[in-house]
Amino acid sequence: MYIKSPLNYTGGKYKLLEPIFKAFPENIRTFVDVFAGGFNVGINVEAEKIICNDQITYVIEMFQMFGQSDMETLLERIKGLIKQYELTQQNKEGYYALRSHYNRTKDLTELFVLACYAFNHQIRFNNSHEFNSPFGRNRSSFNGNIEKNLTEFCRALHEKNIEFSNEDFTVLDFTGLGAEDLVYCDPPYLISTGNYNDGNRGFKDWKEREEQQLLELLDRLDERGIRFALSNVLYHKGLSNELLIDWSKRYQVHYIDKTYSNCNYQFKERDAVTVEVLITNY
CA geometry: angle at 117 spanning 33 and 112, to 5°? Predict the structure, then answer.
């Protein structure tokens, strides 16, 4: 059984871990999760050392806080906030009171509780780095499943050799890596819309320029003999990522849904489907 992140992150890979791990090499010395997000992949991978990186400062800081916290104390604090603000699936006023308080204090436990009660559990900020996800009425809450996920996630953070990093992928340091390591990238998808890559969240957006920079970085890693794996989509709701399709032809393309593995790039039903892939250089 895989550990599930307590953060229900947009684009999270928990449901795709099986096919992703089947395509990973067996022995990994250092695993670099460049766009960690909810960290579903990195927390479950078997490696001597795991580097958890993301440009969203507050998420990395939250993971660090989880790793340093005593579980009993953390749960006590979470449940104390829920009681203090009378949070339920219906209490919108309590949610917005906590949100207002968090935006003044930047308390990481408050941020986690907000994510539990936010619409679709989204972690979203405005350009001033204020948390601005709306309330998830009748849908979102801190429940038994999230508590279980949090407990298992924190246990793994304590047990595994994990290093945290908060860098943009363009300045991340890969100099110490070699043939035994694996760089994993799960960037925002160029052709699917997400509130994390529209440029209005106080963090770097994701456009064709960023896509090109990432592909050039992966080419450089390949030239140095460093293994990489890239999660992405070739087609999504009638759109095709021609830049990625053309680039992928020089590497190995693993289709996450095997039914698309024999298709050519012009198949007729592509308007109706999302073709998710893992592209590797090994």
Answer: 40
Task: Summarize pLDDT for 59-92 with one digit per residue, the tens.
Answer: 999 999 999 999 999 999 999 999 999 999 999 9
| Burial (0-12, 13-18, 19+ Cβ within 10 Å), 279 | buried
Greatest pairwise CA separation for the chain in angstroms? 57
Coil vs helix vs strand at 68: helix
* The amino acid at 153: F
Secondary structure of residue 262 in the 3-state scheme: coil
Residue range 171-194, pLDDT digits in tens: 999 999 999 999 999 999 998 755
CA distance 114 to 213: 34
Is 12:38 a contact under the CB 8 Å cutoff? yes
Tokens of 163: 């290093």
- The pLDDT score that the predictor gives to residue 193 is 58
Q: How far is CA 191 from CA 233, 234, 236, 244, 246, in A?
A: 8, 9, 7, 10, 15
* CB distance 236 to 189 below 8 Å: yes
Which pTM does this prediction carry? 0.91
